[in-house]
Structures are given as structure tokens and as C-alpha cells.
Amino acid sequence: MKNFRQQPQSRPKKSTLVIGRQKVTTALREGLQLERIYLVQTIHGPEIEEIRKLAEKFQVPINKVPVEKLNGFNITDHEGCVAVIARIQYQDLQDIISQVTDKGETPLLLILDGVTDIRNIGAIARTAYCCGVHAIIIPDKGVGALNEDAIQTSAGALDKIAVCRVNSLMKAVDTLHLNGIKVFASEMTAETSIFACDFKDPAAIILGSEDKGIYPALMKIADTRFHIPMAGKFESLNVSVAAGMILYEAMKQRQPGIL
Q1: Per the domain annotation, does 3 fall within a domain?
Q2: Which phi-psi region, left, alpha or beta, contains residue 31 (left: φ > 0; alpha: ψ -120 to 50)?
Q3: Closest Cα to residue 211, out of 114, 110, 123?
Q4: Residue 154: inside a domain, yes or no?
Q5: Cβ atoms 136, 168 nearer than 8 A
Q6: How many other CB atoms are there within 10 angstroms of residue 16's CB atom?
Q7: 97-129: per-residue pLDDT in tens?
Q8: Which of 141-145, 149-153, 180-184, 234-238: highest mean pLDDT?
Q9: How many CB atoms lie within 10 A of CB 181?
Q10: How far is Cα 101 from Cα 96, in angstroms, rounded to an integer?
Q11: Domain span including residue 207
Q12: Mapped to the 3 state alphabet, what secondary structure does the chain carry?
């Protein structure tokens, strides 16, 4: 599949940064939601190990970077460690499922596997909110940062829709299955057409990246794989465009009176 070039992300504002090892450790201990932590590749020691353990506990991704990356934030007192405060508030997957069912609604969730372009993530969130998706599930690694650029691209939808960040999409699918939610995976070579899928029951839909698709092990545990029919032969659809097609079909099935 074609790998589309990503736009460079803007530098985070200094007001959104937690700078230095002790301050990052304190932020983690006090439960401040962090988007990610940047550690210089060459630093080690007890303080760094504690940051790693706390980050794993709270599902905060760590990026190992050259020191030039942190210097590029226009700061000098970083001690090789900087965290970015989360722009949105991540929510627990099971809590969201329970809230939806308690309201008597039928869960509809979206799983993003390896989608790194923040423009795509923002566009997907916008469509998801408009089509009645209850939550977007993302992994804590291998996904674009949900920063101010992503919020802007989503036209504010990322402030309205629940986002669940998990340390394993495989475990997230297990949670979905335990709650009676069927998992669908979009795959261009699948035999089943999207129009043969029943999205009226509790459902979660996995979308993969345009270059690598859905992780094979994740694809394997999906209940149904489907494709979007195309009149012309092409390598793939843009993931945000595919999301719009899929979610509109789900909305049409769930709200037939809307048309």
C-alpha cells in the first residue's frame, strides 16, 4: 500500500511541557495526564528507570530521541527528559462501555492501529463524532500525538468524543469480546463486503495504517473482515476517507430514519 508523506508537527508550547526528571516523575505520581515522554537516548540511572516504570503503569508512551530533539523545544534545563501534557483527557475503556450500556445505547467504537498522521486522526475523529461513535481506541505507542494540531484538524471533535488509550490493542479486543461487542476489521482483500456487515449490534471497527494495514495478530482475532468495494483498482483508500464510508454505513443501519 502507498505510504503517504506526513507533515511535520508543530513544536509544543513551553506551557504544555513538564521539564526535567524530578518534575516528570512528580507529574506521573500525581496522575497528571501526559501525551508522551521524551528521553534522550543516552541517559540512564535510577531516576530514568523510575520514570519508565511509572510511564508503563499509566500507559504513557516514551520516545527515545537525540538531545537535539529536546533542544529544539527551545529549552536548556531539560536534563534529558521532557513530557508533554495531554491536550485531551483519556478515559478507561471499560468505564466507557459501561456508561454507554447504562444509558441503554448500543456501543459503537473505533480502533486505530498504527495511524500516525495527525491530519488523518483529526479527520477520523470528526467523522466518528458525527456518525455516533462512542469512543476511539488508540494504542499508547505507534500513533500520532493528539496535540493541538490534531484537535484543530478534528474541528474540536477530539474534545467531544471519548478517547481510550490502551497499552495493548489485543487486550482491548479481549475487553470488547467480554462485553459482547463484535469486532470488525477493514481489509481490502477480505471476501465480505461492508454492505454484508451488520453494525446494528454492539460493534467495534478496526482501521489500520495505509502502508502496513492492521497488525496480523490483531486481524486474526477480529470476528469479521470486510472490504469496501471500489469501481477502479487502486492500492488503498485514504484511511480517513475509508473511515467516513464505513461509519456512514454503520449510521445508516443504526438510524434508518435519518435518510
Answers
A1: no
A2: left
A3: 114
A4: yes
A5: no
A6: 15
A7: 999 999 999 999 999 999 988 899 999 999 999
A8: 180-184
A9: 21
A10: 9
A11: 93-258
A12: CCCCCCCCCCCCCHHHEEECHHHHHHHHHCCCCEEEEEEECCCCCHHHHHHHHHHHHCCCCEEEECHHHHHCCCCCCCCCEEEEECCCCCCCHHHHHHHHHHCCCCCEEEEEECCCCHHHHHHHHHHHHHCCCCEEEEECCCCCCCCHHHHHHCCCHHHCCEEEEECCHHHHHHHHHHCCCEEEEECCCCCEEHHHCCCCCCEEEEEEECCCECCHHHHHCCCEEEECCCCCCCCCCCHHHHHHHHHHHHHHHHCHHHC
Could you tell me if residue 9 is inside a domain? Answer: no
Amino acid, single-letter form, for residue 112:
L
Task: Provide, rounded to the nearest whole percent, the portion of the chain with pLDDT above 90.
Answer: 70
Question: Do 124 and 224 have their domain in common?
Answer: yes
Answer whether 11's CB lies under 8 Å from 74's CB: yes
Rounded to whole angstroms, the Cα distance separating 136 from 162 reads 6
Q: Which residue has the cell 513544536?
A: 11
Dist CA 208 CA 185 (whole Å) = 9
Residue 103 lies in a domain: yes
Residue 239 in contact with residue 143, Cβ under 8 Å?
no
Q: What is the pLDDT of residues 53-92, one digit of tens each?
A: 999 988 899 999 999 989 888 888 899 999 999 988 999 9
pLDDT tens for 163-201 read: 999 989 999 999 999 999 999 999 988 999 999 999 999
Cell of 165: 488509550
Last-in-domain residue among 85, 105, 129: 85
